[in-house]
Amino acid sequence: MTDAQLALADLDANSGNYDEALKLAGDALRAHPELLSAHLIRAKALLAKGDKKEGETELQAALDRDPVSLPGLTMLANLRIAEKRSPKYYCGFRSRLSDTRRIPAFASCWQKCISTSAI
Length: 119
Fold this sequence. Notes:
Layout: H1 2-15, H2 18-31, H3 36-48, H4 52-65, H5 70-83, H6 94-97, H7 104-116
Helix pairs in contact: 1-2, 1-3, 2-3, 3-4, 4-5, 5-7
């Protein structure tokens, strides 16, 4: 049931049904706390609702489970870019990004990061 539950949660998050996405992903996490995708879905929904604090907490929980998660790093980099934070905030990506910058899907986000900071 968890795969279907997560698929529905992701669909809800992508469709703007954030509360339902949070409920489904939360249910999945209660049964399987290690699920990276459930943390990412919750982070996406929370950030979309404007709850940056909880969204970043969920995102960090996902990255704690997989420090080089491409979806997690992309979400974090896009969050930092949207916030227009100082370049010092991008420096935390250095160790994580060194293994992922050759991945084509991450290239555009990586380029934005290096063009605005001193990584």
